[in-house]
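Changelog entry

Holo records now carry the ligand SMILES as an explicit input line rather than a separate metadata file. Below, a converted record for thiamine diphosphate, shown in the new format.
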Amino acid sequence: MAREMMYGEAMAAAIIEEMQRDPDVVFYGQNMAMTPRDPMLKLFGRNRVRIAPISETAEIGIAVGAAITGLRPIVELWMNEFMLVAMDQVVNEAPRLRYMSGGQVKVPLVLKAGFGFAAGWAGQHSNCLYHMMMGCPGLKVVVPSTPADAKGLMAAAIRDDNPVVYLHNYMLTLEQGEVPEGEYVIPLGVADVKRVGADITIVATGWMVKKSLAAAERLAAEGISAEVVDPRTLAPLDVKTIIESVRKTGRLVLVDQAPRHASAAAIIAAEVAEHGFESLRAPIRIVSALDTSIPYSEPLENHVLPNEEKIVETVKAVLFKQAVPPERPVEAYLSCPEVQAQAGAHQDGRRHVQHRGASDVIAPVQQVVRGDEYLDGAPERV
Amino acid sequence: MPTSDDLGSDRLIWMYTQMLRIREFEERVKRTFLEHPGAMRGHTHLGDGAEASIVGALATRHETDLVMPSYRCHGYPIVLGSSPCKMMAELYGRSDGLCRGFGGSMHLADPAHHFPGTSGIIGQSIAHATGAALTAQVKNTGQVVYCFFGDGSTKQGAFFESLNMAAVWKLPVVYVLENNEYQAYTHISLEDANHLAGDPLSKKAAAFSIPGITVDGTDPLQVYDAVLAAADRARAGAGPSLIESKFYRLSAHGNAINVPPAPTQFPEHEAVGVYGKKSEYRQAQAADPIPRFRDELMRKGMLADAEAQRIADTVRCEMDDAVQFALASPPPAPEEATNYVYA
Ligand SMILES: Cc1ncc(C[n+]2csc(CCOP(=O)(O)OP(=O)(O)O)c2C)c(N)n1
Ligand SMILES: [Mg+2]
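Structure line, unchanged by the conversion:
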């Protein structure tokens, strides 16, 4: 039996069902369960459902301590940025304790947070931070894109014996979909093909899955068959499903709401470049946010974030080897005017730019991967 | 030592005017959600109810003293001399905004007016303000830093770590803890240990062995006296103080959090909307600091009806202009988004 549910509701349903199933699961966070009318509070009481002050370091640290001694805490963090004030607990405590104890302890906890609120929340409340959590062996990172996945992955996260960062995209909160009723657990580390296609693979997470599916629909109207793969769990990553898709289509576009550098997309692209190189018939392309903070004003925000249009264009560029500008010209990286001036002054484009910061790394790249030239000149490899 | 008793009527009327300017600005912001839905994005937080506390504190400033509040930041720059037009344009996300449309309501900054910037992450700006006090100390500028933060923020590590360091290094900073009884939707009785024990929040100062005092934040003169003493102490090199200023925010925490295109506006105050305590909210409205201070000035014979009316009219025009300016300002060009990533 399945029921229409919103993404946000589906997560809550999983938490309730798991709390009913396992008395060791506790749930707390800021600005929740404030009055006796709260449904969670009514069901489970103050012993298991608590309200926390604005103390993320303690909230998450307490979850770690409780987890290694027999509870299975879920911490409601609301926005993924708030986890950053407790980065030590997330990155250097929770995922380390089991390993450092030689496998003696386990740390079953869930850090639940929203992300990617692309609605004018500006620099400190709209970010996508999953890539920052992907490089922490021992930590699992879950990013559901549909109501059904929201439920099944939450149940799995709660049952998992490891610390799990469960990140839900704010833009999907009201998204409706069929959700299986009763016990429904989606194993962590298994990707899902959201749309079957033959010509190109699009790998996307979170809200970008929705955008990619919409782009695929438009492409279909033009006779292009795109396959959309959602990893669902970024750590551990289901490389196999992605490679299998690329073997079939021979082409890969990745869509990521986070900035490009060190993005989840870049990591997946590297896996495909290493393990699926023979299957690739065109260079891999990433459609991501620009390497900026998220600006407040709407036209600025729209410019920074990926969208359906950019996905469609990029897919066509990969398929038809059009010499359209790469999703972001390399010059865009050189946003600092002095760097731009300096880079321009070096006619051959090879001279190392003597400047601070990322420009040192970026400048030499300029002459290596002029995306459009590379696309034009790339030999067909079937 | 001078106190608020030494303030002349000009200065008191200036203070009243500033309080009114903050209120009028905030009312325009709130009304925008009805009159121009979609014009303000994200999350906007108002300072109505805080006017007496803000103005009472800032009236003690020396010319170059710095001011560093939290994300609920509209009131302070208004007093410091920032342009309400540019502030409003920023909230509308326009190119003439104070931060060129990059920051929005939570992140106003105007260094030219001694307002170096704000953070939307609770508690973190307490450390920034403490760092500004380090600059003042190292460079021996004679400046004092005025650091404002909410009751909820005192549950962050940054609060404890900063106050301890400021005390150890004797930094010239005044910490104003704005206790409005709520952190977002949560009442203080659900989360503050001092409050639960029946103690004032200023007791937290005892943990760092610095002066801690609680004042009625709806009375600008009480706030003035406490902050003046603390600022003098800081300027004299004796280190930080903690002042708990108690008032009540008169609007909800912020506009309702919705996923676009669903519209958003200010809901009822949490006292009513979450806890069903209408009488608590009515009481707070009755203690509104603005009419209270106006009546006090009138009682003292410092403010006549006609003068009060003239001030109200001027302030209303000023803030109407701010809205018109914001509406007329063009949006930023999309490509500008890649500016300002690095210095
Ligand atoms: C580290 C962090 N956790 C949570 C939040 C979400 N949040 C935004 S405002 C707020 C309440 C702050 O309350 P308080 O400090 O009392 O200030 P007030 O809003 O009452 O002025 C919370 C919890 C945040 N911005 N940063
Ligand atoms: Mg508060």
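Spot-checked after migration. Chain B touches chain A through 53 residues (CB under 8 Å). Chain B has a mean pLDDT of 98.
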